[in-house]
Amino acid sequence: MARTEITRQTPVRSGAALALAAVDASASPNGMFYKSDGTELVVVKNADASSHTMTVDIPVTVDGQAVTDKTVTVAAGATVIAGPYGPEYRQADGSVYLNFDSATSMTVGVLAI
Questions:
Q1: Is 2 helix (H, G, I), strand (E, B) or coil?
Q2: Which domain holds residue 94?
């Protein structure tokens, strides 16, 4: 299944609300990405009554060994800011892949800083 793109948002001096998109339930647990230049922060909000995990794919190898993907725990009712994720997290097309263990009550946004 194709991943769903998360639109990067750029802050403005006058202020703007951060738009959070629902985690794509049709593609969960592998489902979202954003185009990256390495300066973005990922905001994940969990409105569920239990904690959930976001996994950031790391597509590189070191000495032929796969690198363990980065996991970020989002506690019940919490909002977490993670990143920025540098070049080691980027796929060949420049995207960063985000995977979620659940799409229930989860929203995500990407802020280009």
A1: coil
A2: 4-112
